[in-house]
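Fold sample X.
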Amino acid sequence: MRKYFGTDGIRRIANTELSPTLVYKVAKAGAYVLSKHTDKAPTILIGRDTRISGTLIESALTAGFLSYGANVKLLGVLPTPAVAYLTRKLNADASVVISASHNTYEFNGVKYFSNKGMKIPDEIEEEIEEVMDSGKLEELTAVNEKIGVSEIREDLAEEYVWFFIDLFKREFDKFDKSNFVVGIDTANGATYKVAEKVYKELGIKYKIISNNPDGININNKCGSTHLENIQKYVVDNKLDIGIAYDGDGDRCLAVDEKGNIIDGDICLAIISKDMKEKGTLKNDTVVATVMSNIGLNKYGQENGVTIKQTKVGDRYVLEEMLKNGYNIGGEQSGHVIFLDYNPTGDGILTSLMLIKTLLEKKKKASELTNIIKIYPQVLVNAKVSSEKKYDYDKDSEIKEKINQLEEEFAGNGRVLIRPSGTEPLVRVMIEGENQEYITKKATELAEFIEEKLK
């Protein structure tokens, strides 16, 4: 069991739980573990989102890296996928993103990326934790001319903009975009500058909201976790599509011209169908997680596309893609990975792939979503004892209730039980055709699990 790292790096309340002292230790230990096989002073990139605590965490990280002898490039406010991209492009030894993604401003986090621009695996995080608690940090102190140096390189954001220009400019110039307008919600987060630059360079008309960060308004009733803003904005302004990014820009959700939500599963269906038609969908396969809607599986069956499912978490999606040579995968939440271009979820890339499909097919967004039927999905948390949350599948009565429901929903729904990785909860998720009925069944099952595992 990891002590500091969770499912997506370290994420805690800034300056209390995520103290400068802890961050300093994470930096020093991380620099050692991620660069111990290099024979030169390592170079580490640091990017952050717009939270008020970002520069505080950045200072502590920088101190830890420099103390070890690593050199640091400070990228400033930049989306997570931009940092991942620059790590590979600049041949850096590692990078760190300071962000708590979709969480509110008081949280912040530390996410490590390897020299390949990928989130580091669980075992590397565990090794960093071992070094942090081993008492060896003092031995990893650089002295004299070995002390690292830092430099501010906010200009490198332009490299990320050019990444999109190289990918899309030629194609987008061919499309008739004269009457096509996109609504953008940047969540007052890391995409607030760079997204506008990309859309301008590609000649896409846009209207933008939630792009005035003040350090505490990131994800505050805006962005991909609060779609009501962009839904209303698109309908009121008669826009063709709305795009909402999250705080660190590694995912996006969309809404069609009527304000209907286009989630990650729908994005995967629309874009993978286009890729299959063009012969670019490797092994005719999409990688998703166990939380993906049953509608995605039915889309796959009807369109000759295999849907592979992994544990929840984009790192596990990526592992499956790398292992078997797949090139598209993602989560319902809007993390979508296009492995041909970048080995991490990229909100701007996902939105451009979606927009490109719209313009190419000359269809409305609502027409493209017809290829997939999303089933109602209900998630109810059962509050249980921390010691017993993994025992739900050992209790014969709980197993019997789950089996009965699975038989009832066979083919037209499903039941998924998943213990929380961080809280004393067992999550009960049921999908089916009738929202009221599945809500009733999910609540009943959650209450039964609570009673048995309290």
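Fold sample Y, listed below.
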Amino acid sequence: MTPAADDEDFRGMLRRMEEAGQLQRVSRAIDPRYISALGSKSPSALLCENVKGYDIACASGIYWSRPRLAAALGWPAKDLGSIFAARVARPIPPEIVREGACQEIVTLGDDVDLTALPIPFMHEKDGGPYISAGVAFASDPELGTNAGCYRLMFRTDREMAIDLFTASDLRRIYTRAYEAGQSLPIAIAIGVHAFEHMAAAYKAPAGTNEMDIAGALRGKPVRLVRCKTVDINVPADAEIVLEGELLPNGWTADEGPFGEFAGMQGDLKHNPIFRVNAITHRRQPIFQILQMPWENDWLNGPATEAACRRALGLAGIQVSGVRATEGGCCGWSVVAAIKKRAGEGRNAIAALLSLPVVKQVIVTDDDINIDDPNEVEWAVTFRCQADKDIVILSGMKGKHVDPSVRPWDLKPGELPTTAKFGIDATIPEGIPAFRYERIVPAFVKDIDEKDYL
């Protein structure tokens, strides 16, 4: 891996992960078809340095777990949500530079060939090979600069289908161009630092420049460079950039199925086409493969925890900790510990369930270790009465990716609704805290086990 000038670019991030024992190099030659499978079995992230048929290395599984994401960011694993919340509140605008490593090699027009990239076939029932780690950049007179995460399915040597099926800022920008019968210039950056990737995945308010958020996360401005063929700025140290346009074909090109972030195989969809007019990249570039579902989920996990802290804070509730659980795909299910006052168990549930993605919530007192599922289950078992302490809310905003909302029954353009629930596992009002006093072995402080074991 070529040394980078900036330790906070993609390559510097991989070096830090390797030093932390969270990334392993694979020197043996590997067919790109097998990289996703190997990544799903590996206990660490992978840097495959010898990909058969390509002069491009592949990085995979970088954000597969909370410890890996923590190593990528350089943050303590237990504090991801709280650090995200603190930093995102202080945006830092990007710095525009004249040159960037992402443009060391430039290929234009008819010389563009997407088959030169090791685009993998990722899941057994996918509709084709996919670029899964791309960050799309676009610009709009009203909404300004926008960055977001979108999957792209290979179609031809210069065309890909992009998933704009659900509501997003890019869909809104593209819709305006489509209705005017015009193409929309965009750029796709592959191999950016976790700061930029997480900012792009963050559900920021419309009109927010996600690179301001990325600057906040890294604590200094993101370096951006103007593309060669479109008036769009991209991370200057990205590994690979695809420049081109979303054609005004609308939602007509078949795209999918694809393995979704919820861990289930998705449906065939119809989406717009991205035509690539230029490919720029670093010398000896690294192609990033983002493995579903956990890499996608953990990119959103800290942002979910930060949103929960914000919602609880607005409700006047003192928060001790929040965890977006893996079983809930790091967003749908949340456990929160609070310093409770009378009635705040239910208040906390109401605040958390108001967040669009959160579907189920458990609220505990701050004496419970919410990182220990057994502790949480103990609190639910002995502090909850089902007929009093389970809150159910109907008719809430749902997600198409959740099969339990039966999205196939919806009329075209109709949005799904869902039922949400919360469990108040705090000590019930009227029961003194001493009733929950834990047992302690006699004389436990008087003996040192090292003298005997």
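Sample Y note: The domain at 83-284 is CATH 2.30.110.10 (Pnp Oxidase; Chain A).
Also: DSSP finds eleven helices and 23 strands in the chain.
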